[in-house]
Specification:
Radius of gyration: 26 Å
Distance between the termini: 45 Å
Strand order of the largest sheet: 11-16-15-12-14-13
Number of helices: 19
Mean pLDDT: 85
Strand content: 15-25%
Shape: elongated
């Protein structure tokens, strides 16, 4: 029989269906090979429906990416030292039983601890630039691991040893220093090794980049879970293995599933989306919007009421004049727009900076004079409480609605309903480009430029603009939720009037 499993990308839920009875799993179980194996998920003969599918490329890349730190390596070493001592103590006592473990197991633990020590030393030995970082081609990871003894010839034995030792840690059920050892640290290392030496290691290396950085060490209270060497360190190094080809992970899914259906309101342009996933998608359906033009008003505000240009680019966003002009614009809009209003910022940092300026200058109090103001919390736990209070204010006859400050790509911008009076207008305060100087963004753009001619996909600059466009489209989608709904979309940034942005 054919099983149908429905996945929600953004909400990270596998919806239970009568056919497969799989229960609830996080979304990455579908895309990450190791998690599918752990949870016994078989995609053969499955019709897989992925909602909010504009997030699939990023999820696919993350499924084949890892970050290993000197701290996590040291934690593995500490776990192994603990297990080695425990088994040696048992060997010298009456608890020792030949059926439980042998000298070979103790030697394997000692060898693996030596590997961890060598790995930490090798990571410390990577030459960094004057910014305490360096970037390398993905093939460097194979070479790097080979220098500490992890090669195509030894990896199978290493995997087998790790799996056995993880079982021994998990089943031990005891603690040292008041801390219980679970095998989680070693399991993460094992997943990393399986990713590097996976089904297509050469392809993985070609579409990946290695990034190493060093940072000042943060104070860690978990002194019992790290080695003495880690306690004496003043810095922490991170070894990142970033996959930049969504098609690499997606190919493992398409080879198993009977059919894959991707749905989203923001997949266009479909050609570049298909190229990114390396899936042809012979069946494509694009529908017009459910409402007509009279139900949506869209406008660009190039300047504020004081004639200051509204532009939240990196060069302008910290300007007090800009922030005050944006705040005064929102004051005027809050006064005339009824019911619920959503205001989206490009980042939490920008939202915090603007609100601080408005609070100091009295602008926030003027906004609150017209509508109570609610803020998207950074922590997921407080979101539902905030949403309930927002809805209650809209339904309160004493208020002229309510206003909600949120962040593009945040929890509010996707998956939440602001139906009818809950969302009569969406105000976008800027274009949410990814941080251009972020190492991962820079390497992604360089990778796309390098493979564009052979992959027929997006250039780095095209991808960069598309990320912002999709984030804006997701945010403005909160205002129209059904056929009879209506509302306004107000773009408070003069760059929205540029031809390249509109296209």
């Amino acid at each position: 029989c054919v099983r149908v499993c429905v996945m929600g990308v953004r909400v990270h839920a596998w919806l239970k269906c009568a056919q497969c009875g799989s229960g609830q799993y996080i979304f990455n179980v579908c895309l990450e090979m190791q998690l599918r194996r752990v949870h016994g998920i078989d995609l053969n003969n499955v019709i897989l429906i992925l909602d909010e599918a504009h997030n699939v490329p990023k999820a696919c890349e993350e499924a084949s990416s890892f970050d290993i730190t000197t701290k996590s390596i040291s934690a593995c070493s500490s776990d192994l030292q603990y297990l080695f001592k425990k088994l040696k103590d048992q060997q010298e006592s009456d608890e020792y039983g030949e059926e439980d473990f042998g000298e070979d197991d103790i030697q394997d633990i000692a060898n693996l601890k030596m590997l961890m020590d060598n790995l930490e030393g090798a990571l410390d030995g990577v030459h960094l630039d004057n910014q305490r970082q360096t970037a390398k081609h993905g093939s460097f990871m194979i070479e790097f691991l080979g220098n500490v003894g992890v090669t195509f010839h030894t990896v199978d034995t290493l995997v087998s040893q790790c799996e056995k030792i993880i079982t021994m840690l998990t089943q031990g059920g005891s603690a040292v220093g008041g801390v219980k050892r679970s095998g989680t640290n070693l399991q993460y290392f094992l997943d990393f090794i399986k990713t590097v030496f996976g089904p297509s290691p050469d392809e993985q290396a070609q579409c990946s980049r290695v990034f190493v950085k060093e940072e000042e060490k943060q104070r860690d209270k978990s002194v019992w879970t790290v080695s003495t060497t880690e306690l004496s360190r003043k810095t922490t190094r991170t070894l990142s293995y970033w996959c930049f080809s969504a098609g690499h992970s997606m190919s493992q899914v398409t080879q198993q599933a009977k059919c894959i259906v991707l749905t989203s309101g923001t997949l266009r342009p479909l050609d570049s989306f298909a190229a990114e996933l390396k899936v042809g998608f012979p069946v494509r359906l694009e529908n017009p919007h459910v409402v007509d033009g009279q139900q949506v008003w869209v406008g660009v505000a190039k300047t504020g009421p004081d004639n200051v240009t509204l532009n939240s680019s990196y060069a302008q966003r910290d300007s007090i004049d800009y922030r005050r002009s944006l705040g005064n614009s929102i004051v005027n809009l809050a006064r005339v727009i009824p019911n619920g209003v959503l205001v989206f910022f490009s980042s939490y940092g920008l939202m915090t900076g603007c609100v601080d300026t408005w609070r100091d200058s009295g602008i926030l109090q003027r906004i609150e004079h017209h509508k109570p103001v609610f803020f998207e919390p950074k922590q997921k736990g407080g979101l539902q409480h905030t949403m309930n209070a927002f809805y209650a204010s809209i339904n309160d006859s004493e208020h002229y609605g309510a206003i909600f400050f949120a962040v593009c790509r945040g929890k509010v911008s996707e998956g939440l309903d602001f139906i009818d009076a809950n969302g009569r207008a969406v105000i976008i305060t800027g274009i949410p480009y990814p941080p251009r100087m972020d190492p991962k963004v820079k390497l992604k753009m360089e990778y796309l430029d390098a493979v564009k001619s052979q992959a027929n996909g997006l250039s780095g600059e095209q991808w960069y603009r598309q990320q912002a466009t999709r984030a804006v489209n997701q945010a403005v989608g909160r205002v129209i939720r059904h056929r009879e709904d209506y509302g306004a979309i107000i773009l408070c940034d003069e760059r929205f009037s540029h031809t390249v942005t509109l296209s």
